[in-house]
Amino acid sequence: MSDRSPIIVVVADIEYFSSPGTSLVLDDRHFPVLIATWLGKASIEAAQALGDWVRRMAARAVQQDVGFVLVYDSTQLEAKPSAKLRAFMARDLDALDASACGDRFLGVLVRAEDKLLRSKVAMLTWLLTRRVRITTMNSMESALLQAKLMLESAGYVPPAQLEPSRYERPLLPDETLDDVSVG
Fold first, then answer.
1. Helix 44-64 to helix 83-98 angle, to the nearest 10 degrees?
2. Which of 87, 97, 157, 182 gives a 20 to 30 Å CA spacing to 66?
3. How far is CA 34 from the centre of its chain?
4. How far apart are the first and last CA of the chain?
């Protein structure tokens, strides 16, 4: 991607965040299962955009009186999250859990195939001061199956349209945003 200030584009139930070196695909097509795909380098700027989106989705969950699960696909990250970024994300997750939606926030599932990244996720859980449940998963299918089970176990109906074995990731930002003109 070229040097440019961050942009956010919303297409249907998918939000794209892009800034130099990092991108996010934020997918709520299967609400209350929220799927975020990280690409490039993990950054505070992207984490802020992710946190803003999650808070909007949390407000939606409160309004609709449902629980929700976050699924992070980190397999496209080029660099592992720094200690500063992990601390920022832990504070953000703690604040979300402490908010009015806390009892609806059922947990975070991180698709992480890389062993080093899995250890960084474990370090993130140590930084949390609240009960946020973070689990690493080996595949998107297993993460989505677990998300459905978490909703059912908490007494919520999982999204009928979500079929974990058929999940297709939305087009990635470099496949879509390069064609978007921002005025």
1. 20
2. 87
3. 6
4. 17
Side-chain half-sphere of 79: how many Cα atoms within 13 Å? Answer: 12
Q: pTM score, two decimals?
A: 0.79
Contact 36, 69 (CB under 8 A): no
**Whether 37 contacts 25, CB under 8 Å:** yes
H-run or E-run covering 86: helix 83-98
Retrieve residue 182's tokens.
């921002």
How far are the Cα atoms of 10, 41, 102 from residue 98, in angstroms, in the given order?
Answer: 28, 28, 6
Cβ 150 vs Cβ 108: under 8 Å: no
Cα separation, 8 vs 25, whole angstroms: 10
> Is the distance from CB of 111 to CB of 73 less than 8 angstroms?
yes
**Cα–Cα distance for residue pair 81/41, rounded to 1 Å:** 8
Spatial neighbors of 83 by CB under 8 A, at least 6 apart, are 123
Q: Give the position of tokens 């089970």.
A: 149
Q: How many helices (H) and strands (E) does the chain have?
A: 5, 7
Q: DSSP class of residue 70?
A: E
Query: For 58-112, how does the pLDDT look when each residue is reduced to its tens digit (9 = 90+)?
Result: 999 999 999 999 998 888 877 677 778 878 887 877 777 656 676 788 888 888 7
Question: How many residues make up the chain in this entry?
Answer: 183
